[in-house]
């Protein structure tokens, strides 16, 4: 006779949760970003490496899906928060952060991917059982079923205020940016409806991986040949090769040995414009005053070497100065990397012929790369960077010789970090300077603005929104 105890009728047997490893990894990355202020672009590769080494069959397709889930969820968080808020009966601030992360991950699968709704809901509820418990997984299930009842456009019609009632709030919800960032980018574009929606949407796209073939070390054609059929020539920089299908730059020998690097075309153009600025007299000593991690320094040093000039690359943070040294290793011409505070120059006044000051900034022009950055930045950060940006530009003017050229660059288009800084310094610096028209120095690049400074844009140029003003010291 079978003496095994029988389960009471009607009570389902407890089943241990068995979350899918891709969702679990994506959730772990989101928690790290939320809880420890981790950067997704640092935490995710580490988690992916561990998963791929783990021997559970986690493959490249799993890694691609996990990456899409993490980046997509973070980028679209503003939109998903508005939708989730419409589906729960308490303020979002009262929902436990881990539960909110699970809900956002589910919302992204339902509204931002082609994953079939039933699979999105069941995989996310299974994840919820594992990470927040059975009780709260029922809440997750109920909310996700409400979200699944409509598509993204339907939800946006319901949760975003009409454009005509409140344009900034409308754009903030529809394109998932904080309202103050919408407002700042709009000002930077010059107002009007033109371009703002394209720009906000471009911030939500995955940026292409672009390589730079450092002149004198690697020819662009040579780099293209090594990349193979995935390589597409750059749009603007003669040294750029774009990796159409993403690809793994670290697998390329030219990248491993430093002859090429990963660098957005906007950054390449900034270095090129400074190097192309006309100069009377000697052109031997170049300075990059804010060099870490060294992308622009490596291109500048290679361009300098072609002309028999040398580069000093200064960086305040020792660990970033080490990255600069790594980026410059193997440069064919003379260079020096120093750990130094650019506001207290370790060199005599008027030492350099060309100076780049690529100053610390809010990074509002590189939101495509740092999906969480838009939610971390605060309006007061803009003013916070102002004094250092002005001081570094003043130091740059002091460091360049009379007749020499300074490039003031930011990866933010915010007017308070760009023109306002340049105008203030031009008015108040004891070294006199004049602006040079930077636009003709980048022949063939359209839509650079009204000059004399230039502003690149993700939606117009496919680059980060880099800003560059070129100033010639006149006295
Ligand atoms: C926008 S990043 C420069 C990016 C770099 N040009 C590149 O292309 O790789 C600004 C750098 O300035 C450094 N920095 C901040 N304050 C500085 C100072 N007072 N003097 C020198 N460098 C400073 C930061 O540590 C950071 O590495």
Strand content: 5-15%
Number of helices: 20
Structural shape: globular
How many strands? 12
Largest beta-sheet characterization: 8 strands, mixed
CATH class (first level) name of the largest domain: Alpha Beta
The name of the CATH topology of the largest domain is Rossmann fold
Helix content: 40-55%
Number of spatially distinct domains? 4
Q: Which residues sit in consecutive blocks of at least 5 with pLDDT less than 50?
A: none
Span of the ends, CA to CA: 105 Å
Ligands:
S-adenosylmethionine
Q: Considering the protein shown, what is the CATH homologous superfamily of the largest domain?
A: Vaccinia Virus protein VP39
In the CATH classification, which architecture of the largest domain applies?
3-Layer(aba) Sandwich
Mean pLDDT: 95
Structural class: alpha/beta
Radius of gyration (CA) equals 25 Å
Offer a concise description of the structure.
By secondary structure, the protein is α/β, with parallel strands linked by helices. It is built from 20 helices and 12 strands.
Explain what the structure shows.
The protein is globular and about 95 Å long. The model has no long low-confidence stretch (mean pLDDT 95). Helix 1 (21-36) crosses helix 5 and helix 2 packs antiparallel against helix 3. Strands 5, 6, 7, 8, 9, 10, 11 and 12 form an eight-stranded mixed sheet that branches. With 475 residues, it is of the alpha/beta class. The protein has helices spanning 21-36, 40-53, 60-75, 77-87, 97-112, 117-131, 134-148, 152-159, 167-175, 179-189, 196-203, 220-227, 253-256, 265-276, 295-306, 318-328, 373-376, 379-399, 419-428, 458-461; strands spanning 209-213, 231-233, 240-243, 260-262, 285-288, 310-315, 335-339, 352-358, 400-410, 433-436, 454-455, 467-473. Bound molecules: S-adenosylmethionine (SAM). S-adenosylmethionine binds next to helix 15 and strand 6.
């Amino acid at each position: 006779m079978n003496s095994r105890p029988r389960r009471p009728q009607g009570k389902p047997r407890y089943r241990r949760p068995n979350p899918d490893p891709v969702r679990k990894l994506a959730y772990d990355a989101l928690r790290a970003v939320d809880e420890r202020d981790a950067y997704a672009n640092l935490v995710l590769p580490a988690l992916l490496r561990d998963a791929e080494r783990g021997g559970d069959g986690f493959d490249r397709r799993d890694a691609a899906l996990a990456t899409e889930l993490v980046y997509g969820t973070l980028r679209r968080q503003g939109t998903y928060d508005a939708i989730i808020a419409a589906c729960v009966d308490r303020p979002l601030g009262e929902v436990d952060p881990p539960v909110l992360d699970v809900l956002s991950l589910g919302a992204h699968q339902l509204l931002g991917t082609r994953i079939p709704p039933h699979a999105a809901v069941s995989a996310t509820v299974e994840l919820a059982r594992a990470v927040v418990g059975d009780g709260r997984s029922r809440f997750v299930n109920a909310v996700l079923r409400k979200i699944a009842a409509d598509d993204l456009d339907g939800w946006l019609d319901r949760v975003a205020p009409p454009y005509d009632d409140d344009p900034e709030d409308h754009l903030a919800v529809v394109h998932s940016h904080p309202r103050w960032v919408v407002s700042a980018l709009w000002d930077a574009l010059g107002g009007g409806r033109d371009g703002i929606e394209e720009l906000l949407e471009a911030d939500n796209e995955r940026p292409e991986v672009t390589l730079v073939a450092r002149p004198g070390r690697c020819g662009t054609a040579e780099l293209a040949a090594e990349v193979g059929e995935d390589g597409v020539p750059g749009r603007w920089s003669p040294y750029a090769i774009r990796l159409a299908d993403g690809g793994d730059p670290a697998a390329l020998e030219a990248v491993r040995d430093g002859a090429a690097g990963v660098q957005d075309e906007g950054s390449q153009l900034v270095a090129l414009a400074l190097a192309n600025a006309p100069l009377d007299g000697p052109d031997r000593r170049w300075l990059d005053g804010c060099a870490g991690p060294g992308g622009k320094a490596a291109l500048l040093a290679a361009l300098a070497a072609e002309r028999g000039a040398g580069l000093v690359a200064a960086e305040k943070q020792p660990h970033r100065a080490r990255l600069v040294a790594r980026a410059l290793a193997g440069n064919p011409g003379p260079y020096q990397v120093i750990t130094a505070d650019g506001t207290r120059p370790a060199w005599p006044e008027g030492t350099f012929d060309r100076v780049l000051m690529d100053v610390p900034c809010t990074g509002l022009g590189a939101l495509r790369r740092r999906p969480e950055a838009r939610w971390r930045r605060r309006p007061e950060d803009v003013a916070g960077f102002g004094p250092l940006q002005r001081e570094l530009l003043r130091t740059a003017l002091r460091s360049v010789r009379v007749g020499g050229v300074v490039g003031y660059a930011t990866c933010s288009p915010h007017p308070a970090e760009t023109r306002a800084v340049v105008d203030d310094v031009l008015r108040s610096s004891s070294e006199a300077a004049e602006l040079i028209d930077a636009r003709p120095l980048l022949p063939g690049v359209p839509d650079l603005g009204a000059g004399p400074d230039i502003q690149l844009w993700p939606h117009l140029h496919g680059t980060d929104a880099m800003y560059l003003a070129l100033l010639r010291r006149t006295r």
